[in-house]
């Protein structure tokens, strides 16, 4: 392929992505929302890399790309404003009959929830560790990081689940049970601890808690 052909393909790719996102954003009530660029950054990776088109249902690769992009974001960007922006985009997509984009935005919310819970689990460990040892959060984090090298199958499985698309959870759970990587009792215990310590500790009625 010549340079001109490559440039033409790249231009078409950029056009496909931009046109679809403009259709979603163009008439939302708060087009200049401070988190719109962040949401757009995540949604863009759901587009097919060769064509720039948003295909639904998403491939496993596109779902993984959303998860990876979400985890790259600074925690400070994943706040209530981020969720409200996704919600506004979703409402606009529903009004316009863009069912595929609604599905993609739901995947974004799922990735947000998994990332937020995973990060909150780490923060909670540090807080508890600091309280128990009487050390600072930073010192407790170092101790926890070292202790995490000791195998905890249930914790590792849960972290893996939080980092993947929810539609793959059933098959992943069956696999870990069939291979005896973890017992159902141990995984349930880990889940219950996460629910009690992380999710229930969030502000009641917040958009964050509703998503998780």
Offer a quick outline of the entry.
With 212 residues, this protein is mainly alpha-helical. The chain contains ten helices and no strands. Helix 4 (80-95) packs antiparallel against helix 5, helix 5 (99-133) crosses helix 6 (137-147) and helix 5 packs across helix 9.
Top keywords for this entry?
mainly alpha, 0% strand, 212 residues
Describe the fold and architecture.
The chain is mainly alpha-helical and 212 residues long. Helix content is 70%, strand content 0%. The chain has ten helices and no strands. The termini are far apart. 24% of the residues are buried.
Q: Provide the low-confidence segments as ranges.
A: none
Mean of all residue-level pLDDT scores: 82
What fraction, in percent, of the residue positions are helical? Answer: 55-70%
For the termini, the CA-CA separation is 47 Å
The main sheet comes to: none
Shape: globular
The secondary structure category is mainly alpha
Order of helices and strands: HHHHHHHHHH
Count the strands?
Answer: 0
Secondary structure layout:
Layout: H1 3-25, H2 36-44, H3 60-72, H4 80-95, H5 99-133, H6 137-147, H7 153-162, H8 169-178, H9 184-199, H10 207-211
Helix pairs in contact: 3-5, 4-5, 5-6, 5-9, 7-9
């Amino acid at each position: 392929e010549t340079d001109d052909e490559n440039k033409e393909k790249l231009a078409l790719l950029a056009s496909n992505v931009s046109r679809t996102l403009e259709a979603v954003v163009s008439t939302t009530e708060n087009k200049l929302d401070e988190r719109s660029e962040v949401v757009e950054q995540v949604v863009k990776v759901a587009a097919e890399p060769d064509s720039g088109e948003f295909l639904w249902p998403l491939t496993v690769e596109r779902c993984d790309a959303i998860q990876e992009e979400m985890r790259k974001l600074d925690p400070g960007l994943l706040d209530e404003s981020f969720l409200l922006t996704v919600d506004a985009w979703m409402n606009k997509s529903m009004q316009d009959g863009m069912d595929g984009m609604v599905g993609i935005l739901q995947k974004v919310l799922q990735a947000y929830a998994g990332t937020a819970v995973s990060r909150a689990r780490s923060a909670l460990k540090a807080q508890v560790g600091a309280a128990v040892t009487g050390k600072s959060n930073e010192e407790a984090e170092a101790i926890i990081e070292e202790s995490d090298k000791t195998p905890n199958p249930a914790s590792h499985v849960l972290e893996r689940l939080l980092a993947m698309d929810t539609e793959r959870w059933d098959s992943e759970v069956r696999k870990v049970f069939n291979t005896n990587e973890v017992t159902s009792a141990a995984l349930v215990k880990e889940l219950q601890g996460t629910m009690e310590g992380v999710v229930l500790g969030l502000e009641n009625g917040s958009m964050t808690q509703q998503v998780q």
